Amino acid sequence: MTHEQEKLGRISAVRKNSFTIDFEDREIPARLRGSFRDEPADRWPVVGDYVTFTYNPAGDSVIRSVCERKSFLQRPDQARTGVMQYMVANADYCFIVTSLNEDYSYNRIARYAGVALQGGAVPVAVLTKADLCGDVDRYVREVRTISDQIRVHAVSAPNGTGLDELAEYFAPGRTICLMGSSGAGKSTLINAIAGEEIMKTGEVRASDSTGRHTTTHRQLIRLKNGVSVIDTPGMREIGMARAEEGIDRTFSDIAALEGMCRFRDCRHETEPGCAVKAALASGALSMERWTLYRSLEAENTDNRAKKKAISKLAKEYKKNKKIGTDREETT
Question: Which pTM does this prediction carry?
Answer without folding.
Answer: 0.81
